[in-house]
Write the structure tokens for this entry.
Amino acid sequence: MYFSKMFLPTLREVPAEAEINSHKWMLRAGIMRKLASGIYSFLPLGLRTLKKIENIVREEMDKAGAQELLMSALLPAESYRESGRWDVFGPEMFRLKDRNDRDFCLGPTHEEIFTETVKNGVRSYRGLPLILYQIQTKYRDEIRPRFGVMRSREFIMKDAYSFDRDEAGLDISYKLMDKAYRRIFDRLGLEYKVVEADSGAMGGSGSQEFMVISDIGEDGIAYCQACGYGANEEKASCMPPPKDLLSEEELPVEKVLTPNIHTISELTGFLGCEPTKMAKTLIFKADDKPVAAMVRGDRELNEVKLKNVLGCTELEIADAESVRMVTNAEVGFAGPIGLKTKIIADHEVAQGKNLTVGANETDHHLINVNIGRDFEAEIHDIRSIAEGDACPCCGQSITLARGIEVGHIFKLGTKYSKALNCNYSDEEGNERQMVMGCYGIGINRSMAAVIEQNNDEQGIIWPMEIAPYHVIIVPVNVLDETVMNIAQNMYDKLIESNVEVILDDRNERAGVKFNDADLIGI
Ligand code: ATP
Ligand code: MG
């Protein structure tokens, strides 16, 4: 390609909306243009890389035995109604009506449609196992589209779905996808971690996310350098603390006046005791019923863990009015003694001795409170893991990092086959539900993630396998005939050898040309 003929509208200025490197470089290097919030067009240079990423994904999926197909993005409401997700998706789903007033949506993900397709196409065990996939545009009206195509409202996803006879079959399909994903992200040149993810209170028996390590990542992840354990922060289990060797004697409870002291840090200052000797009592509403949850003063409560323990659908922190109702005190003085609600306490609270807690009386706290003696609670792991905690697998130290989720593999089980009657008949002629898995990769999010990890002050630094071109020839003076002849000769030879090459034939200063070559990352 001759540079002079390329449609490559680069920008000198950093667009104000671009907060992170990848977004900035994708706009400046003429890779994409914004049309509206969370909606982008890919320009020729960007499309080349996008297609290369798609092809890597395609090759690895095919190698794993998956078959490609292509579904519509415009989908009738019926199967989403059957699965219940017409309601579950809420405002994130783009909905529309046709001229006959029938409901449609722009597909946010395609579990229902794949399930219907396989239900109608496979009748017996002979048609299984089956893994189908597509590389296709998805629509989600995200609350907060941001960071360019990292979180956009229209994006390209590779979504695959596996159909098996039983759990053992699903295990095999899931492992195949896991392996294929690792090869894909290796080939993209990404530094990533595979982490266990939460699969909800009732859903699924396994779920892993592929996280690209980056400070701008929206997810917290915990991993162990010693044994390779990794988990989403929401999921990472915390080991109960070792039983205290010098077991402390239980002292009598005392009420202390703590006027206008609402937070743990105010309380530590006021009482002069360590946050580890305090327990926070937080009041939640679980499906509208109040419940109290306790973690040590220096810890964060993990709402996902709490939700799973309670098995509820909605969990939210109670408003001030409800806190007053439950505790008879202003916010900031909740404690476990005398509460009429269910109490869930973290392991560390259960093992702590002589703790300071709220008194359920405005401006008062209690000291020397002990579980078992002074109050009862259900004991569970409900805190978030912290840097340096013991790894739940090997006991070594945990590291925390931020991650960008580029892929997700998930054991669905029979959730959709049950809802949509996707059955097969086994060897004995019995009707059985197919056991499913689903597997997604964000194609343009992966592209942004590659740039996020591979750039410098001058621009993008593409890994060779997905660079839009492999080589750029920059003749310093195009008016010099000898130089141009040599450049043209090189160009022809490279093309002949199937090397993708740009010849910068523009009559520009050398500095300008070098800057552009650096910017577009060849
Ligand atoms: P997130 O937690 O980031 O919203 P998700 O759990 O909703 O992701 P999935 O439904 O598992 O994502 O989708 C599969 C993949 O699609 C994700 O791993 C991600 O790479 C990509 N993806 C999801 N939402 C978006 C989006 N709004 N913009 C770009 N890519 C996305
Ligand atoms: Mg999402």
